[in-house]
Structures are given as structure tokens and as C-alpha cells.
Structure to design on (754 residues):
């Protein structure tokens, strides 16, 4: 028995080693230092013939978004129906993914080079990693330039001179406050906090009346990434600085990077946060604010309409930019990203997929999107008069006048998770001080560089 | 009736083929992946480089350490299950109710258990509210938010859920033990403790071995769901376990090769444990052969 077991194991290992040695390079993998070559983006001859003949075309779309923009499902169903009416030969199947399955499912599809024609992607690195892996087709030749010019924030999907997707809707991070609680604490509800010192002062006043100043939940990690993106930017001029630090051309221990941990610690020491921040997940932290137990939250503008419903209207909801402590160019910006869609490299109907994506951006569909979800679409053709809530008008103004990149989209996901997520938790647990956390961030970056020479090269090109 | 030598293999062929396709191929692919790395867009053979990277990664080492820490719960689980099984076997009042109740956690989905205990163990959760209510507020701690307490808290939940299986296994075995053995011990004047020590435990030895090995495997490679739902590996990496590390490497960091290398290591440890279990079941003669 023992002999057999070991013999089988040994055979497996030897077989694997031989196979690994002999394994030919995977043909679909693109060169790392340049954008992967994918099929000619114009229609494949068969697809063109099929279209001309009105032959049936089936598109599959894997998407996400209902989770942060409730109403998206209804809008998408309606949009698909309208598109199919206009294009009777096209059938579109939409599959809503869960947050946890969105990326793994697509990774499996990419490995098999088989799956959806249209895939949902978050911005920046969340799109480009798949483009570098050969799973996404560029859209430059599928969508006319004058159409692309209307899309907001699509610089996130631009790499090496090509555009790797289409934005769908905006997702920004306003600093939201409860006007009633501000008033109770003796703060002016109509005058948003502007400076860091005013923020610390507001924390004192809110604590004095027994209200948690800012609510958050770090247990599931994500909020740590948000904080990093929202608070660390003020000493920087551009997202490129982060990318350069990631590839080793600067260090995360440099003062302009280390200051984030100092500022976060300042808020902690000033009693600005809920004590249970480490044992709550982000949703629970958010609930504290919506239930009126906390006065402020680093929120997401896609949630605002839902919060207004729960809070009995918009009257108590005030928005502000993050109070300033730094003098970098990004200190005055509104953190935002465009969630988007891409066309897969293996799709046999790239042009049809692109046509559908353009249909999603027609003025009628943009207006309907806003009506269904209360979320700003990533397109400057939305008629602003459709936005009647002053708070959402404010978001639209920020989106279109002072948009700034979401830093999580411009750093390696390992750095986000092992430094931003974990670091915030360790700070609030009292296990590490700001200096140690800056060093930890640099150590994670060094590890990422060591483990991912290819990705480092891609980031280097992207940072140029 | 005479058979040709190859005939049995012919009959076995479809099953063997299915086994090769279902089990062997993925394992071979996994081992191949673990020895490759992407370089300039191509997968190249890098030998054991990924394994060396793993052993340089502090997060991986912390994950391994946490898995080993969780092994502390194995003797606890075995002891608790044994004690409960003995009490139930003694037919204490309401034993049927207790039997069902004790097994119930094992039937519940881990995600449900994890979510419920997440709420219970929050800093502002039910447990701490109760402790405060009865004047024990100094024991109201941040069970999931502290790097020192999070892993023991997760371990408690794993024990709570998994111990039911041990109770059922032990009880099933006890019920098949011949009553004469206990009668004989009683006639010989054995005390309650002596009866457990000299009759019950020896009779249960094979089941105890089985449950111990199963529990060790659980703690080393089957705790992902608990950790993912309750702490997501945090705070920091204080509850990181190897399975979660595999998930993060593969699906968050896009480093399938490192995920594969970690999986191979987990697989090897699990195979060794299964092998140990086989040997244990083969009895003392088996041990001599090892």
C-alpha cells in the first residue's frame, strides 16, 4: 500500500516536472512590455457576414453593479429589450455576478479563452491586469473617436496608447455628513468642514454630545483601501507618483507617502472613529451613519439615493470634499472612478458588443439610467437638468469639474490588500504606529516587485 | 472459469480513465503551474522558485503559523466530544434532546455559523452586551477586532461547530460495544473512571484516531469559510490561513503560480495525513512497516 502510494506520488511529481519543462509557452499570452495583440478589432469576416445576413448573434454579458447602484438590473433589462427590438438578430444574455465571483469567474474564463463577450470591470488596474493577461480587446477601432470623447474618466482604461474598455457610471467618494447631528453639536450644517483642524474640532464637538463623529468598518478590509485612496492623496500631484513608488522609483516611506498614516492616526487619537471599527465590516459601519448613530462617513455617491430613502429624505444629507491637510494638486479633487465594461479578446462579435455599449450611452438611456439608479452615468451627454437633488447636482459638478483618480485603481492589488487594508486594521488595533506602517507598505511593495517582474514592467510603462 | 490477465483491467478501464481525468490531470496541472512563472507574456519553467518565494513571504509564514496554532483545538475537540459522548451514552436525563442539539451545529452551513458568530463577537455585539449587563464589562473585549483575540475566537467557533461530528462518531461506536464488557468491569469492581479508562477509551481508539486525523486535516486545510466570513484574514494578517492565502494570491493578486505552489504544499500535507490515517487503521503491524 505504502509503496504504491509513494510510487504514484513520485510518478505525478516527475510527470509534472517533465511536462512543466516541455510546456510550450502559452500562445495567447501577450508580451508583457507591450499591449497584447488581440484579434483585429474590426469584425471577423464570419461576424460581418452574419450581421449582413441578419443571422442570429448571441452576446453574453457578465456584469456587476446592482450591488452599488440599485435599479441597475431593471435599467439593463429594459436597455437590452430596447436594443433587441432595434436589432432583432441580436440576443443579449446578462448574468449578474456577485462581488466575490466577479473576478474569479472572469479569470477562469480568461484562462479558457471562453466566456462572456462583454465583461464588467472596475477601473485602472482592475481592467488593465486583464488586458495585460490577454483577456480584453481594445475598443479604439470599434468605437468612433467622437463617441469616446464623451466618456468621462476613461483615462483609467488607457494603456500604451490604447483604450481597453468603456465607462458605464461614476462612483465617487464624498465625505457625507448628517446635518441634524451637526446642528445638535453646534456645527453649522450649511457650512461644510474645509480644513483638517476644523475636522478635529468637529470630532470634539460631536463626541461632547455623545455622537460618533465618523463611522467605518474595517473588518472585511475594503474600507481600509478607501481610506488610503481618499486620505493619502493630499500630498501628491498625480496618481503616477503612486505607480512610481510601486515600481521602486520612489519609496512609500518618503514623507509624502508616510503622512497618510500620521493623519489617520491623528483621527484615531482624536476619537473621531467608532470604537468598534475593527469588528464591523464596511456595510455595518455605513449602517451606523444611516441610522443616525454617527455624524460623518466616507461614503460612495452611488449609495446616496438609497441612504436618502432610508433616512426619510435628503434633508439631513450634506456633502463635502475631504477636509484639507496637504497642498498637492490632488488635495482639492473629488475621488471618483468610472465603473465600466470591456469586450473580451475571444468574442466573435466584438463590433456587435461595441454597438451595444454605445447604445447604453445614447441620451435616452443615460437619462433612464439616472432615473432608475440616481447614479451619474459616465458620459457628458447626460442632460444636467435631469438631476434635481442639490446633493446629486453637487456630485455631478465635482465629477465634471474636479474629478480625481481613485488611488486603489493605480496600485497593485497586493499593495492595496496587504498594506492599505491590513495597515488600517493594525493601526486601529494599536499594533503598529505610523512609522512602522509606512515601512510595512514599502516592504509589501518590495515583495510585489520581487514576485511580479512582469507586472512591474507593465506598471512602469503605465506610469510614463 | 478462466480469466485472461488483462481482463480485470479492461473492466476497470472506464473508471480508471475517469479517475485520471478528474483527479490526476488537475493535480498534474497544478504542479506544472506551481513550477512556472509568467515572463514577458510567456509561462516559463522556474523550478522551485515559486516555493522559495513562498518561504520568503511573511504573510505565507504567518498563515502557516496560524494553521498550526489552530491544531491546538484538535485535542480540545477530541476531549470535549469524548466527554459529551460518554455522558450521552450514560443516558443522562434528556439525552436524546442533547444528542440532537449537539449535532445541530454540524449540520448548519459554515457561512451561516460564521455570520451569526460575527454578530455575537462584535465589540458592540450580543456577548459583550450580556457581559456588561451582568457586571463583567472588563471581559467585554474586541473579540474579532484584536490581533490577539481574533484567531482564538475563530478557533472557538470551529470547535463549536465541528465537535458535533465527534460526538456522533463516538456515540455510534459506543452503542455497538458489547454490553458484557461494561458488565464485566462492574463485576470486577471498576469505578466509573476506571471503566472509562479501561473499557470505553480502548473501545473507541480507532474512532478517536479517525476523528483526530479528520480534525487535523480540517484545521490545516478546511477553515477557509470560517475565516473568510468572520475576519477575512484580519486584523492585519492575524487570522490568515493557507487556504485564504491561496485565494488571495490567485484571485486578488493575479498570481496563479504562487497560489498553485501553496496548493501543492497543502495537498502534500493532506496526503501525508491521510497516509498516516491509513497506517493507523491498519493497526500496530502497519506502524512497524512505516
Amino acid at each position: 500500500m505504502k509503496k504504491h502510494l509513494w510510487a504514484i506520488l513520485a510518478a505525478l511529481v516527475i510527470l509534472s516536472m517533465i511536462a512543466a519543462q516541455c510546456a510550450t509557452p502559452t500562445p495567447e499570452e501577450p508580451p508583457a512590455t507591450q499591449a497584447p495583440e488581440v484579434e483585429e478589432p474590426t469584425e471577423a469576416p464570419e461576424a460581418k457576414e452574419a450581421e449582413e445576413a441578419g443571422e442570429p448573434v448571441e452576446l453574453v454579458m457578465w456584469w456587476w453593479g446592482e450591488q452599488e447602484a440599485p435599479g441597475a438590473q431593471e435599467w439593463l433589462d429594459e436597455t437590452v429589450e430596447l436594443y433587441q427590438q432595434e436589432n432583432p438578430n441580436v440576443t443579449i444574455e446578462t448574468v449578474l455576478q456577485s462581488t466575490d465571483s466577479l473576478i474569479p469567474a472572469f479569470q477562469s474564463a480568461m484562462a479558457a479563452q471562453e466566456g462572456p463577450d462583454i465583461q464588467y470591470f472596475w477601473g485602472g488596474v482592475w481592467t488593465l491586469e486583464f488586458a495585460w493577461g490577454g483577456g480584453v480587446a481594445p475598443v479604439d477601432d470599434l468605437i468612433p473617436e467622437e463617441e469616446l470623447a464623451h466618456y468621462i474618466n476613461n483615462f483609467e482604461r488607457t494603456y500604451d496608447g490604447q483604450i481597453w474598455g468603456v465607462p458605464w457610471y461614476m462612483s465617487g467618494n464624498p465625505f457625507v455628513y448628517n446635518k441634524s447631528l451637526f446642528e445638535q453639536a453646534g456645527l453649522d450644517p450649511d457650512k461644510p468642514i474645509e480644513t483638517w483642524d476644523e475636522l478635529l474640532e468637529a470630532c470634539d464637538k460631536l463626541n461632547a454630545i455623545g455622537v460618533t463623529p465618523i463611522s467605518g468598518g474595517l473588518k472585511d478590509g475594503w474600507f481600509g483601501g478607501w481610506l488610503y485612496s481618499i486620505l493619502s492623496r493630499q500630498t501628491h500631484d498625480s496618481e503616477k507618483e503612486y505607480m512610481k513608488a510601486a515600481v521602486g522609483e520612489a519609496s512609500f516611506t518618503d514623507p509624502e507617502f508616510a503622512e497618510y498614516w500620521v493623519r489617520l492616526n491623528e483621527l484615531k487619537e482624536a476619537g473621531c472613529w467608532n470604537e468598534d471599527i475593527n469588528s464591523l465590516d464596511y456595510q455595518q459601519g455605513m449602517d451606523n451613519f444611516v441610522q443616525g448613530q454617527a455624524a460623518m462617513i466616507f461614503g460612495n455617491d452611488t449609495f446616496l439615493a438609497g441612504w436618502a430613502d432610508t433616512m426619510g429624505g435628503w434633508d439631513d444629507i450634506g456633502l463635502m470634499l475631504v477636509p484639507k491637510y496637504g497642498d498637492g494638486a490632488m488635495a482639492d479633487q473629488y475621488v471618483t472612478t468610472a465603473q465600466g465594461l470591456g469586450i473580451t479578446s475571444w468574442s466573435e462579435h466584438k463590433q456587435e458588443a461595441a454597438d451595444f455599449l454605445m447604445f447604453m450611452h445614447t441620451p435616452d438611456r443615460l437619462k433612464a439610467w439616472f432615473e432608475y439608479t440616481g447614479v451619474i452615468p459616465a458620459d457628458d451627454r447626460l442632460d444636467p437638468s435631469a438631476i434635481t437633488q442639490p446633493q446629486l447636482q453637487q456630485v455631478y459638478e465635482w465629477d465634471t469639474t474636479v474629478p480625481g483618480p481613485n488611488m486603489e485603481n493605480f496600485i497593485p492589488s497586493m499593495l492595496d490588500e496587504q498594506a492599505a487594508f491590513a495597515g488600517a486594521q493594525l493601526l486601529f488595533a494599536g499594533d503598529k504606529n505610523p512609522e512602522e506602517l509606512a515601512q510595512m507598505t514599502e516592504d509589501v511593495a518590495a515583495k510585489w516587485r520581487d514576485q511580479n517582474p512582469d507586472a512591474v514592467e507593465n506598471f512602469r510603462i503605465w506610469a510614463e | 472459469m478462466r480469466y485472461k490477465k488483462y481482463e480485470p483491467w479492461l473492466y476497470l478501464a472506464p473508471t480508471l480513465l475517469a479517475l485520471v481525468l478528474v483527479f490526476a490531470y488537475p493535480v498534474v496541472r497544478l504542479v506544472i503551474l506551481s513550477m512556472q512563472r509568467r515572463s514577458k507574456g510567456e509561462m516559463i519553467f522556474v523550478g522551485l522558485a515559486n516555493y522559495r518565494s513562498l518561504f520568503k513571504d511573511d504573510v505565507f509564514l504567518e498563515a502557516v503559523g496560524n494553521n498550526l496554532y489552530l491544531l491546538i483545538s484538535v485535542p480540545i475537540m477530541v476531549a470535549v466530544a469524548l466527554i459529551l459522548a460518554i455522558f450521552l451514552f450514560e443516558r443522562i436525563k434528556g439525552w436524546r434532546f442533547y444528542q440532537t442539539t449537539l449535532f445541530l451545529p454540524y449540520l448548519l452551513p459554515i457561512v451561516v455559523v460564521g455570520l451569526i458568530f460575527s454578530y455575537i463577537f462584535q465589540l458592540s455585539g450580543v456577548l459583550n452586551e450580556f457581559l456588561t449587563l451582568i457586571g463583567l464589562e472588563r471581559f467585554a473585549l474586541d473579540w474579532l477586532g484584536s490581533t490577539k483575540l481574533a484567531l482564538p475566537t475563530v478557533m472557538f467557533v470551529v470547535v463549536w461547530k465541528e465537535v458535533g461530528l465527534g460526538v456522533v462518531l463516538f456515540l455510534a461506536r459506543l452503542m455497538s460495544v458489547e454490553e458484557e464488557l461494561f458488565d464485566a468491569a462492574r463485576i470486577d469492581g471498576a469505578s466509573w473512571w476506571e471503566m472509562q479508562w479501561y473499557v470505553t477509551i480502548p473501545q473507541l481508539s480507532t474512532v478517536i484516531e479517525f476523528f483526530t486525523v479528520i480534525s487535523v486535516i480540517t484545521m490545516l486545510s478546511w477553515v477557509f469559510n470560517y475565516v473568510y466570513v468572520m475576519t477575512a484574514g484580519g486584523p492585519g494578517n492575524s487570522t490568515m490561513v493557507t487556504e485564504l492565502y491561496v485565494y488571495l494570491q490567485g484571485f486578488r493578486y493575479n498570481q496563479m503560480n504562487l497560489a498553485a505552489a501553496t496548493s501543492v504544499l497543502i495537498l502534500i500535507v493532506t496526503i501525508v495525513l491521510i497516509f498516516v490515517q491509513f497506517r493507523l487503521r491498519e493497526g500496530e503491524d502497519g506502524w512497524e512497516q512505516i
Residues 175-335+408-463 of chain A form a domain with the D-Maltodextrin-Binding Protein; domain 2 fold (CATH 3.40.190.10).
